[in-house]
Amino acid sequence: MSERNDKKNLADAKDEVQGIANVVEVRDVSKTYCRDLQKSLWYGVKDIFREMSFRKSYAGELREKEFEAVKDASFNVKSGECVAMLGPNGAGKSSMLKMMNGILRPNSGSIRIRGRVSALIELGTGFNPILSGRENVFINASVLGFSREETEEKFDAIMAFSEIGEFIDAPVQTYSSGMRVRLGFAVASHLSPDLLLIDEVLAVGDLAFRIKCYDHLRKQVESGMAVILVSHIVAMMPKFCTRAIVFENGKIAFDGDIIEGIAEYQRILGIEKAKSGAMQRLEDDLDGVDESGSKPMASSSNTSIATARTLSLENEEKNVFKTGDSLRLEVRIRSESDQPNCAIVANLNSSTFGNVSTMASRSSKFNVDLKADADTVLHLTLDQLPLVDGAYSFNLSLYGSERALLLDQKSALASFKILNERARSLKGVLALSPDWKNVS
Amino acid sequence: MNPNKEILYTPDPPLRNPLRLAVSIFVDNWSRRELCFQLFARNIKSQYRQTVLGFLWLVFPALATTFVWLFLRDNVVKFSDEGQTSSAYLLYVLVGMILWQCFTEAYMAPLNAFSSNRQMLVKINFPREIVVFVSLCEVLFNAAVRSLVLIPFLIYYSGDFSVSPQMFLYPVFLFGLTLIGISIGIFLVPIGALYHDVGRMLTVISPIWMVLTPVIYPVPESSPANFLVYLNVASPALITARDAMLGSPMTLMPFTIAMIGIYIPIFVFGLLFYRIAMPIILERTGS
Question: How far apart, in whole angstroms, are the C-alpha atoms of residue A28 and residue B40?
């Protein structure tokens, strides 16, 4: 982390010399919300009257049922930079965006914006369904800050971009949701702010239109506009963004290269998924253990999977690999009694695609014999990992000699990343080696 | 990049410098006056596009209420307005109803405007007071349309109708009445947006308030009933505007002018209150 910070500071210093200014400076920003509606409303009333008495907004100890949605966030964004803001739901991304847009005020810290800001948090804001597309273009443009003359000037370009055609004079309530989004983006895309904040709006619409939107934004970034993009669709981001800021539980967990950022985001997402999907995996594991289809019974024995970690073939701890590297999974099991003929199931999971492979020891005719006097250490070696860039982890289930007796189960263990220097494609999960031939 | 435009968001209260805040509210809203017009036009157009009778719906409630009261006055209820003809009473109630509708719309407008524009307010940063100004324009537009309907009634019922200079004071006091209403309404938004009790309470209070205002009955002259005129914020401007339209002696005019004068700074302070409260409301009411 410190090495990365040093690199960042060095880059900042270099930009300063070159005169590339920060469009956004976020310093130690925190934002507090309240989980309980009634309490939240009452705190709201108190905060309003507090501010009317010339005092700062409340920034003391967290009040009852309050939590910090954003905690001590600090970062800069330079002009011409495109930053992906990543994180699971509720991590604090949208709150950060709303504070940068001036809709919410921070409870502590400061946000300095240089230049004009526009936000695409929802497309077609201000659209009235009864009015025609043409009328709504003028209203929406006005909401986003265009003058009537500017809109008239850009109207033909907006029409061409939206591909709405003759439907422009039909009421918007007769449009499909895709048409509304196209019209909304067509208006918004003709803004030329210094900083553009985009929250999930590009997740809708068909693929062809999304590609068109990204291409349009790329051109704007090339002309010097800074973009902060919040989206859960990471596949297209490396082509568009150069940097990622990853939020986890309100804090910035990562700030750096986009590929590393996506891997970090996928790792966090994998942990989240693991928490919620433990029961589902319990059932999935059965496929590798018990062909009779009976459900496993949880055991009350004091047997547990103590640790698991990934190693190189030289048995050195390692958690960043390249496609084609070999990986060794080391599992340490602790038992208070001798238990012969146990079985272990290792599920290799991709944080975005879920289960990649289930590897059951019994399928490989391998039995685990547990001893009471010492930890049992197992090695599972995977040669030439055919995985693309991303974050991966293992879910492990330990079964007793009776097929349906579950001794222990652990999720999201031995997390590791696949990071290739040049690979930018994150589509799919397998990196195969295709052999194409022209045969006629 | 425009290096001159720099915005700083901090937890510091904007009211620390009230004058600067008031100036920034004025500058922000003035620079976006075109948005105000666009939203006003959108609301007016969309309101009646799916109707056959269109703007006539603005005047039906006042006309219906007026004729009901005319019937009750002639056949059921006795008012102390001896000597007043049915035609004169009809005009008295019709003007009163139009002014009362204008006042109720005005004091409910800011809260209604917040509710109907909340999605936009929580997603786009534009001067928040624009929605208040849009609703002010709508109230004045509705009042103007209703007042135009008065003309044929005045010609038909007032016998020897002629345009007097006093009539030109009608729009002035109509505006004053609207300003008083909207100033009250703007202070209700911060609490009303958080607690829906305020909106429900307003629907309960409105008919009671109308009964306590001399809309359908003559202005009481003796004490203690005439205190209703002075204690009720709606009464002076309503009575004065009606007197101006009907050519009656405008005895309450000095009191009304003083009252409107007081409400101008109250309105400005209401805008400051609104601006300060808005981020807190949006944070608490979510997206």
Answer: 40
> Is residue B10 in some structural domain?
no
* CB < 8 Å & 24+ apart, contacts of B66-75: B66/B90, B66/B93, B66/B94, B66/B97, B69/B93, B69/B216
The CATH 3.40.50.300 portion of chain A extends over 20-116+193-270
Cβ–Cβ below 8 Å for A139 and B9:
no
Q: Find the domain containing B177 and state its range.
A: 18-45+53-285
CA dihedral A224, A230, A232, A234 (to 10 degrees): 20
**Each residue's pLDDT tens digit, A324-370:** 899 999 999 998 888 888 999 998 988 767 778 889 898 888 889 88
Our measurement of the distance from residue A73's CA atom to the centroid of its chain's CA atoms, rounded to an integer in Å, reads: 17
Q: Note whether residue B6 is domain-resident.
A: no
Indicate yes or no: CB of A110 within 8 angstroms of CB of B9. Answer: yes
Residue B5, domain member (yes or no): no
Among A43, A48, A119, the residue with its CB nearest the CB of B125 is: A119
Whether B2 maps to a domain, the answer reads no
* Residue of B11, B38, B45 lying closest to A107 (CB–CB): B11
Structure tokens of B259? Answer: 């009252």
Tokens of B198: 């305020």
Do the Cβ atoms of B277 and B194 come closer than 8 Å?
Answer: no
Q: What is the pLDDT of residue A293?
A: 41
Distance from CA of A422 to the nearest CA of B (A): 33
Sorted by sequence, the CB contacts under 8 Å of residue B130 that are 6+ apart come out as B29, B32, B35, B36, B39
Cβ contact, residue pair B45, A135, below 8 Å:
yes
Say yes or no: domain A277-418 is CATH 3.40.1180.10.
no
Average pLDDT value for chain B:
87
Pick A101's closest partner by Cβ from B35, B38, B125.
B125
DSSP string for residues in chain B: --TT-EEEE-SS-GGGSHHHHHHHHHHHHHHTHHHHHHHHHHHHHHHHHT-SSTTHHHHHHHHHHHHHHHHHHHHT---S-TT--HHHHHHHHHHHHHHHHHHHHHHHHHHHHHHHHHHHHTTS-S-TTHHHHHHHHHHHHHHHHHHHHHHHHHHHHSSS----GGGGGHHHHHHHHHHHHHHHHHHHHHHHHH-THHHHHHHHHHHHHHHTTTTSSPPP-STTTTHHHHH-TTHHHHHHHHHHHHT---TTHHHHHHHHHHHHHHHHHHHHHHHHHHHHHHHHH--
Closest CA to A251 of A233, A264, A270, A235: A264
Which residue of chain A has the CA closest to B10?
A110
pLDDT value at residue B80: 64
- pTM, to two decimals: 0.73
Residue with tokens 């907006």: A158
Domain(s) labelled CATH 2.70.50.60 in chain A stretch across 277-418
> From the CA of B287, how many Å to the nearest CA of chain A?
11
Quickly tell me which residue has 């007197």 as its tokens. B243
B91 within 8 A of B167, measured Cβ to Cβ = no
Residues in chain B: 287
* A-B contacts at Cβ under 8 angstroms: 147
**Tally of domains in chain B:** 1
Q: CB–CB of B283 and A43 under 8 A? A: no
Cβ atoms within 10 Å of B140's Cβ, excluding its own: 20
| Interchain pair A130, B34: CB under 8 A | no
User: pLDDT tens across A168-188, in order?
Assistant: 999 988 988 888 888 888 888
Determine the CATH number of domain A20-116+193-270.
3.40.50.300
CB contact under 8 A, A142 and B195: no
